Amino acid sequence: MSSAVADTPRSPGRPRSVRADEAIIEATLDLLAEGMSVDVLSIEAIAARAGVGKATIYRRWSGKDALMHDALATLKAPAPLPEGKSVRDDLVLLLSHVGPQPDPRLAAIMPCILPHVTRSEEHYKAYQDIIEPRRNVVRSVLQRGVDSGELRADLDLELTLAMLIGPVLIQRVLRWHPDLDADKLPAQVVDLIMAGIAAR
Amino acid sequence: MSSAVADTPRSPGRPRSVRADEAIIEATLDLLAEGMSVDVLSIEAIAARAGVGKATIYRRWSGKDALMHDALATLKAPAPLPEGKSVRDDLVLLLSHVGPQPDPRLAAIMPCILPHVTRSEEHYKAYQDIIEPRRNVVRSVLQRGVDSGELRADLDLELTLAMLIGPVLIQRVLRWHPDLDADKLPAQVVDLIMAGIAAR
Amino acid sequence: MSSAVADTPRSPGRPRSVRADEAIIEATLDLLAEGMSVDVLSIEAIAARAGVGKATIYRRWSGKDALMHDALATLKAPAPLPEGKSVRDDLVLLLSHVGPQPDPRLAAIMPCILPHVTRSEEHYKAYQDIIEPRRNVVRSVLQRGVDSGELRADLDLELTLAMLIGPVLIQRVLRWHPDLDADKLPAQVVDLIMAGIAAR
Amino acid sequence: MSSAVADTPRSPGRPRSVRADEAIIEATLDLLAEGMSVDVLSIEAIAARAGVGKATIYRRWSGKDALMHDALATLKAPAPLPEGKSVRDDLVLLLSHVGPQPDPRLAAIMPCILPHVTRSEEHYKAYQDIIEPRRNVVRSVLQRGVDSGELRADLDLELTLAMLIGPVLIQRVLRWHPDLDADKLPAQVVDLIMAGIAAR
DNA sequence: CGTTAATCGAGACGGTACGTCCTGTCTTCGG
DNA sequence: CCGAAGACAGGACGTACCGTCTCGATTAACG
C-alpha cells in the first residue's frame, strides 16, 4: 500500500513471541488456580510451566505483581450477560458467573487475590480496573430493579453489592460444608436477600 | 517427689520460658495483622520480632501451620456475647465482634486466613475448632429468632450464616470504598438482610 | 556483467561484506590481546567490538573455537625470518618474533591459548597447524647449528625447543618482575642456554 | 585452667563446619584439575560438587577470585625439599614437585592460572604469596650453587629461574608430544641448562 | 551444693527462588 | 541474500530466607 499511515513504526529486531505471551499468562493462571497463594507463586515456577526463560517474563513485566495483574485482567469476562427478564434471574446469572464460568479457574483464583488486595490501598487500587467493571454490571442490574419497582426504592446499592458478592467469594470454603450446595448457592443467596429473613 | 499427687511429672532440665511462648504468639499475631499473607509470614520474621531463636519456635510447634493455628486460637474470643433483647441487636453485636473487637488484630487477620483454609479440605478442617464455635453462637441466635417468631420459620440457617459472615470477611477491602463505612457495616448488613431487598 | 569469464559462479543476493570479515577477526584478536581468557571471550563481545550482529559471525564460523582458530591463523607470520649469519642471532630473532612482532598482540595472546590447547588432545591437535610451522623454523635453525658444529652433536632438539619457547610464553608474567626486561629476554635466554649455567 | 589467656573468645552460634571448608577447597581443585579454566569455573558447580549450599561458600569467601586464591594456597607445598647433595639433583627434585607432586592436580592447575595472573598486575600480585615461596626455594638452591662454585659466578638468577620454570609450566602441552616424556622432563631440562647447548 | 539435662540466643547448614546478565540460536526488518 | 537488531531458552550470578542443626551458656530440680 503506497498510502500514508505508517501504522505501527515497527521496532527493529525480532518481535516478541505471541506464543510466549500466552504461555506465560496461561501458566500463571494455572498455577494460581491450583491453589497456590499469590505469595508462593514464583516466577521460576511460571517460567518452567510455560517452557520459557525467566528473562522472557521480566522483559514483559516488571515483577510478580504486574504479571498477576495482567493475567487476571485476561479473565475479565467481556460483559458476561447484561440482561434477562427479571432482576432476580439476572442476579443469579451474574453471581453464577463470578463462580465457575466463563473460565473455571476464576472461582479458584478469586479467594487467592482477596488477601492480596487487602494488604494495602495501593494493592487494592491496582485491581480496581479488573474488579469494578464486574461490580458495575451488578450495580446496573440493581439500579434497573429499583427503577422498575422490583426492588425497594430506598435500597443502598453499595451495601447490597457487598452482600451479594461476599458469600460467593467464600464459596470455596463452603464446598466442604455438608448442608450447602455450592452450585445452588447463587440462586439461594439471591432469593434470600430478595425476601429478607424477617418474618412477615 | 515423695508426696502423693504427681500432678505434673515435671521433666528434668530447664523449663520452657513462658515469656518466649507469649512473645512468639504475639509476634505471630502482630505480623499477621500487619497484613502479611499466611505464606509470606516466616518463622524467621516471627523469631526476630519475638527476640527469640528459631529453634525455640520449632521446639514448640511442628511448623508454620501449627503455630498459626495456636496463635489464632488465642484470639478465640471467650464467648463474645450470648444474648441481647432482640435477634437484630444480637446479630449486630456478634458481627461487630468478628470485626475490631475483642482483639483489634482479628479483623485484619481473618481475610488472611481465608485463602489459607480455602486451599484444601485438610486446611479447612484444621481451623474448624476455631471457626465453628463462633458460627455456633450466631447459629443459636438465628435459631432463637426462628423459635421466637422474629425470623421466618422456613429459614435456611446455614445459608443465612454464610450471608452474614461474607460481607464482614471482605470488610477490609471495603475500607477504601468511598460510600461505605466499615464501622456501620454490621448494623446495615443485619438490617438489610432482615428486611430483604425486594419491594413490598 | 555481460563480459566473459564467470570465474566464480557468484551466488545470488547480497555478497558478504569483507569489512565485516576483517572487523570480526580484528575484534577477536584485540579482545584476546587485552588479556581475556579463551573462555570469557564471548561472541557477543566480539560482535559489539566489531560493530556487527552476532548472526554475522555465526554465518561464517560454526562457533567460538573455529573463529579463534582462524583468527590466530592470520597471525601465523608468513615465515618470519629464515636465516642469519649465526645460530645465536637467528634464535634471538625468532624468539623476538614469538614476542611483540610482527603483530604486537601475538605475545599477549599466546599465554591465553596455552590453557586452551592444554585442555584436551583434541584442542591441542586443532592448533597444531598454527603452532608447528613456527616450531619447524626454530627446529631447522637448531638442526643447522648442529650440522655446522655450532651446537652440540648430541642435542635433543625437541627438548631444546621446549626450553626456548617456555620462557617466552610466560614473559607476560615477567612484565612486572623488577629484575627482568621483557625486551631483552630473548637474547638473554639464547645466550644462557647456549653457554649453560654450570661453571666451566 | 584458671590461668590467663582467653585463647579464642569463640563467637556465638554454630561454628563453621570444617568438613564444608575442606569439601569446598577440594571441589575447587578437582574442577580446576579437570581442565576447566578459571573463568568457566562456577561457584554453582563448586557448591554442587562439594555437596554444599552456595551461601556456605559466600559466607567464607567474597567471590571466585578469593576462593581460588585460598584453594591454590593449600597446594603451596610446605617446603617441598630443601637440600640434596648437588645443585643438579636439587633442581631436578624441585622441578618434579612443580609437576605431579605433592598434589597430582598441581600440574593440571598451573597452566590454568597462568592466563589468570597474566591478565593484570593486580591478579599477578594476588598470587605472589603463593608463587614466590616456591620460586624462593629454587632461587636459594641456585645461589648455593653459585657460592659453592657449581654454577657460573656471573649467573643471572632471575633469568635462570624463568628458564627452569617455563618448560614445566607447559609440560601438559608436551604430554601428547611423541618425542618427549613428561616424567623425565625435569631431569632433562636441568641437565641441558647445566651444560648449555653450544658445542664445546 | 554439685550434677544433670532440657532450655536459651545465635548462627551455620543444605536448599530454593529471587531478579539480573550473558550465552549461542533464531527471527524479524530494511538494504 | 546479507546485515543490524533484538527476542528466544537456558543457565550462573550473588542475595535473602527457608526449616534444620549445632554450639556455649543458662537455669532449674534432683541427688
Structural class of chain A, by secondary structure, is: mainly alpha
- Tertiary shape of chain A: elongated
Radius of gyration of chain A: 21 Å
Main pleated sheet of chain A? none
Low-confidence stretches of chain A: 1-6
Average pLDDT taken over every residue of chain A = 80
* Largest interface between protein chains, with number of residues from each side: A-B, 55 and 56 residues
What share of residues are in beta strands of chain A?
Answer: under 5%
Question: What helical percentage do the residues of chain A reach?
Answer: 55-70%
Number of strands of chain A: 0
Order of helices and strands of chain A: HHHHHHHHHHH
Counting DSSP H or I runs of 4 or more residues, the number of helices of chain A is 11
Query: How would you classify the quaternary structure?
Result: homotetramer
* End-to-end Cα distance of chain A: 73 Å
Task: Write a structural description.
4 copies of one chain form a homotetramer. Chain A has 200 residues and is mainly α. Helices cover 61% and strands 0% of the residues of chain A. Chain A has 11 helices and no strands. Chain A has helices spanning 18-33, 43-50, 54-58, 64-75, 87-98, 105-118, 121-126, 128-148, 157-169, 171-174, 185-195. In chain A, helix 5 (87-98) crosses helix 11 (185-195). The model of chain A is unreliable at 1-6 (pLDDT under 50). Chain B binds a DNA duplex (31 and 31 nucleotides) through helix 2 and helix 3.
